[in-house]
Amino acid sequence: MASSFPSFEKTIQFLWLCFFISNLLDLAHADPPYSVCSNNSNYSANSTFQNNLEILMSSIRSNASVSKLYYTSTGNDLDRIYAQYMCINYITHDSCSTCITAASQDIMQVCPGDKEAVVWEELCQLRYSNQSFLGHLDVSGNIAKDNQKDVENPEQFGLVVNETLSDLTKQVAFNASANMYATRQAAFTNTETLYALMQCSTDLSPDDCNTCLRVAMENISSCCDASRGGRVLSRSCYLRYELYAFYEGANESSKSPVPGKSSRRKTWIIIILTAAAAVLVVRDGLNDGESAFMDLESIYAATGNFSDSNLLGQGGFGPVYKVNEIHLLDFQARKMSDGKEVAVKRLSAWSDQGTDEFTNEVMLIMKLQHKNLVKLLGLCVDGDEKLLVYEFMPNRSLDVFLFDKKERARLNWRTRTGIVNGIAKGTLYLHEDSRHRIIHRDLKASNVLLDKDMNPKISDFGMARMFAGSEGEANTARIVGTYGYMAPEYAMEGLYSTKSDVFSFGVLLLEIITGNKNSEFNKSKRAPSLLAYAWQLWNEGKELELIDPLMADSCCSDEFSRYMHVGLLCVQEDPCERPTMSSVVLMLKRESSILTHPHRPAFSVGRFADYEANAGNCSVNALTISSISPVDCTLWGWVISMFFSW
């Protein structure tokens, strides 16, 4: 009698098939695309809105091969659409293009007829809306997913995850050189490693990025406590962690440093940096009491061991503290002037890039002397601590006044023009009057400090670049700076020059005289940015409509029109058409100056233009970076090579 049971071989095949189908079901449950569709507002088939949306999707697909972040808009009035995509930073441009192409197809299929939608693929996000969202935090509708597999010892794993994500959040949000993206690894067991990745949309402020990631961490804790991995998909940020290397380069560039090697590397960079700084101080004659080495114990005592009660704020470099200078001693234990308050910038402990910024800032600021640049009083490099001591600015930074209605009322027209002219003169010094040509690369309201008399001083030179002689242009693959102030050719192509600083200055000028923030501007949906709206009103002869009502009584209309005209010249899309800072200073000062007609400004950072066609008409030379004298080059080249090869 034949057996009714299947053969052993068929049984094994059946079990493998069940296992395979089970995994497929898990993947179908866990893998993208994910979407959030809005049913609040719909468009009709064959409408102008649908036509604009199709044009927008085509534009997005064509740009995905050249940029991993893109923001754009099209249409007018009720049919205007805003769109943005963001690819995970580690992927290639080709992979980004493939992902966005898929997303542009999926978003039309899963949210048909919706005027607002967002879709997440494995490696990218795409969203569109009939409302402008550039620079606005949005954590509504966050999607949290686990990877369907439980972890052993979830309590210990939860502690490792929370600590790692907390540190990573600080790095992504507040380390400007990270460009709002970072990865990290941490040991979980002897055989397992946690891999984590975070990314914010770079149009967010650091505080909004921090908020977005903190909310994402809360989402993780409620969905994925016992899981071996999880991810949170937000409109404004992205978080993921796993117990396997899910991102490219995880085993090399993101590996947690080996304690012994890290310690030796830090020791050597500290020794070399201190020695090199000493050479620069002595050679340049800056050891005359105006700049000195500080004692770490004195700084600890003065800041209350970096107590939060002395914390002024958080910059891209790290936290900034206020102390009384009477507590600070220089390298020879000599007291500095009594009773004077100073600011101490402390390098973020979690930042690898911060060491480069620290070195860069020391190199630059020691060479600069101008009344509209913040003054370096001293530095301290001791163990893991790296600190810079600056003069204290009692009125904090310009953004504190400019973007708060109550504080802005204190800025009358004369005060504002004084601030504008001071920033212009400080930038002119960097570009043309200092020993070397310097491009700041991050001119913005929060990097302009105000003294007790509201005189402006440009600060934060961690991102700045220095050129020799007549050089003044370079290209970089690592974009740093702040969207809303960033020149389009720099944001999209990595090309920076003195003209990119001029663009940032123009944005700042328009913000100061109007009281509006460019990255958050949407004037009754008539224009996507302050630049666009200012240009529109200027062409219609209605520029006085942009006068800040809080200073209307003190404002001279003719002078306002001239300042607005200069601002529009600075933010023209073609960098060759922007004036130099020397021309800007003259145009602001001379009422009789004849100003040229400004061309169309860059309405957003989401565009890609071909500047090579205009290269022959531009006075900026094509250059390589050669920033300092041969003695400096040899010394700092050795510093950097030792640091990265140790």
UniProtKB/TrEMBL annotation:
Matches recorded under SUPFAM superfamilies: Protein kinase-like (PK-like)
One of the Pfam families matching this protein, by short name: Stress-antifung
Location in or out of the cell: Membrane
Membrane topology summary: Single-pass membrane protein
PROSITE patterns: GNK2 (PS51473), PROTEIN_KINASE_DOM (PS50011), PROTEIN_KINASE_ST (PS00108)
Molecular function terms, GO-annotated: ATP binding; protein serine/threonine kinase activity
Gnk2-homologous domain: residues covered: 31-133, 139-246
Keyword RNA-binding: no
GO cellular component, one term: plasma membrane
Main location: membrane
Cleaved signal peptide residues: 1-30
Keywords: ATP-binding, Glycoprotein, Kinase, Membrane, Nucleotide-binding, Receptor, Repeat, Serine/threonine-protein kinase, Signal, Transferase, Transmembrane, Transmembrane helix
Superkingdom of the organism of origin: Eukaryota
All copies of domain Protein kinase, residue ranges: 306-600
Protein's recorded name: Cysteine-rich receptor-like protein kinase 25
